[in-house]
Amino acid sequence: MVKIEDILNKLREVTDPELGYDIVSLGEIEDVREENGMYIIKFLPTSPLCPFISAILEQIDEKLKELNIYENSKIEIDFENKWSLDRISPEVRKQLGI
Question: Which of 74, 69, 77 is nearest to 53 (CA)?
Fold first, then answer.
């Protein structure tokens, strides 16, 4: 069984093409959980109209394959909540001068 922290670490390798930082530090990953052997990753794009959603999802799929959990995982895209700069990690906020 893969640990949630291992999944988050692997997702840190996924870069948002528009912002140039990883999706975990940008707060685009709302939740990672395991339910009955299924890993559920909740993804919050920076915008519902983000042109890079499919590219980011492809990168996430590749990372899940590297962890050998692709077949036992599901990505939920959250279009109901709104992403904001407040979601960015303190380290990246400092690099961006926010």
Answer: 77
Which residues are within 8 A (CB) of 11 and not within 5 positions of it... i.e. 6 or more apart? 22, 23, 24, 29, 32, 41, 60, 63
User: CA-CA distance, 68 to 78, in Å (whole number)?
Assistant: 24
- At 29, list the tokens: 């990953």
> Which secondary-structure segment (H or E) carries 42?
strand 38-43
What domains can be seen in the chain, in order of their start residue? 4-81 (3.30.300.130)
Q: What is the pLDDT of residues 52-81, one digit of tens each?
A: 999 999 999 999 999 999 999 999 999 999
- Can you read off the two tokens belonging to residue 11? 């997702």
Tokens of 70: 């692709």
The string of pLDDT tens digits covering residues 15-41 is 999 889 999 999 999 999 999 999 999
SS3 6: helix
For β-strands 29-35 and 38-43, DSSP reports them as antiparallel
